[in-house]
Amino acid sequence: MHKLFTSTLLLAGLSTTPLLAQMKGMHSGSMNGAMSTMWGPVVGLNFATFGGSSASGAGFSSKTGLTVGLELQRDLAQSLFLRIGALYSMRGADQTNGNASLNYIEIPAMLGYTFKMQGSRTRPYVMAGGQFGIKASCSVSGGGSSTDCNTALGTNVSSTDIGVTGGAGVMFPAGRHGHALVEARYLIGLTNLISSAGAGNDLKNKGFTVEVGYMMPFGH
């Protein structure tokens, strides 16, 4: 009887071992899969200008500038993710006789939602969140010369910028482990850039960004 009981336990253990291994592999894949945490370079173009009451009637138009940096994406749930980044971003606005150039180190943080398409590994997504910018430089150009913003305006331009941002994009497999992305964003600045100039001044950053990137999972 003891031998029969021992043999039965051994057979049960052997038969359940593959199932347990499979379940462990599924759990490991869902928690530590290649897409759970990704990072990589992004590059794009800003089509920036100024908003706010002080921009009305001032003749500002869109100014094209470069944005480049690194971003990290972390899955929070099956379709929900967090995207943060560190970018060098060229903003400002054009006018008929010159332009204003404001360059920032920007840190966006957005929550996103991925839409899964049946039978396809392409993943459309939407994002929304906030952005913090640290002014790297600011100048006003016109007539063949360029002047620091503080000197040209006679006041200090805000050294930081806070805004809300959102957009949409698509991610698809590219290469052995990586994923390429193409996306568009829109920024609405909340910081008054010339608040120290007195009451009634209201000038804020705004504009579209179009960018491409390549995200790679950690460990590859």
Structure description:
This protein is of the alpha+beta class. 16% of the residues lie in helices and 56% in strands. It has an eight-stranded antiparallel β-barrel. Strand 7 (160-173) and strand 8 (179-189) form a beta hairpin. The longest helix has 31 residues, at 2-32. Mean pLDDT is 83; it is low at 1-34.
Summary keywords:
220 residues, alpha+beta, 8-stranded antiparallel barrel, 16% helix, disordered N terminus
The portion of residues assigned to helices is 10-25%
Strand order of the largest sheet: 1-2-3-4-5-7-8-9
Estimate the strand proportion. Answer: over 45%
| Alpha-carbon Rg, integer | 25 Å
Helix/sheet category: alpha+beta
Oligomer: single chain
SSE order in H/E notation? HEEEEEEHEEE
Uncertain ranges: 1-34
Annotation field: number of helices: 2
Biggest beta-sheet profile: 8 strands, antiparallel, barrel
Which outline best applies?
elongated
- Terminal Cα separation, in Å? 54 Å
How many β-strand stretches?
A: 9
Give the rounded overall mean pLDDT.
83
Structure summarized in a few sentences:
This protein is of the alpha+beta class. It has 2 helices and 9 strands; from the N terminus they run H-E-E-E-E-E-E-H-E-E-E.
Present the secondary structure layout.
Elements: H1 2-32, E1 37-51, E2 63-75, E3 80-95, E4 98-114, E5 123-142, E6 145-148, H2 149-153, E7 160-173, E8 179-189, E9 204-217
